Amino acid sequence: MTREDLQNIAERYVEVWKRHDAPGVALFHAPDSVAESPMYATLKGRKAIEFAAQAFVTSFPDLMFEVDSFVIDPPHVAIFLSANATHMNDFFGLPGTNRHIDFRVAWLIRLNADGLIEYERRVYDFTGVLLQLGVLRAKPMKP
User: The CATH number of the domain where 107 resides is what?
Assistant: First the structure.
């Protein structure tokens, strides 16, 4: 697979996320794909990946992603994004707070020969998200 092929796949993957298309997100993954996420732990297979994507976009229905950059080293792709959303619906048992979250994300992806994601590691500051939602409190540091 060429760099151009991988760039095209990565751009289309971001687009299905932007459309909040959870089934579409899952279809970018191989049937036995694994996705690791600080929020949803280790997801195995398309069904689990779709479920987690749907849960997130349901909790944050105005979720928006902006691509910061792509790094491609076949068969790997790294996608760096900025994300922002409003917590409007249940999120791990926490009713919608209408609080806004803003965070950076890196999706580290390995694709198979068929152009499907066989492994994805999602990297972001989940603790920072919880702080923004008011679930956790941070003590100010003293000099």
Answer: 3.10.450.50
Angle at 128 between CA 9 and CA 57, to 5 degrees: 45
Query: Is 137 part of any domain?
Result: no
Is 34 within the bounds of a domain? yes
CA distance 28 to 46: 9
The pLDDT assigned to 140 comes to 78
Question: Which range of residues forms the domain containing residue 23?
Answer: 3-129
| Listed residue (110, 112, 118, 124) closest to 44, CA to CA | 118
75 forms bridges with which residues in the sheet? none
Question: Which two structure tokens, joined as six digits, stand for 140?
Answer: 């100010």
Number of domains the chain is built from: 1
Locate 4 and state its tokens. 């151009």
- Tell me, what's the pLDDT at 1? 87
Tell me what pLDDT residue 143 has: 80
* Separation CA 130–CA 143 (nearest Å): 25
In a domain, 30, yes or no: yes
Segments in the chain below pLDDT 50: none
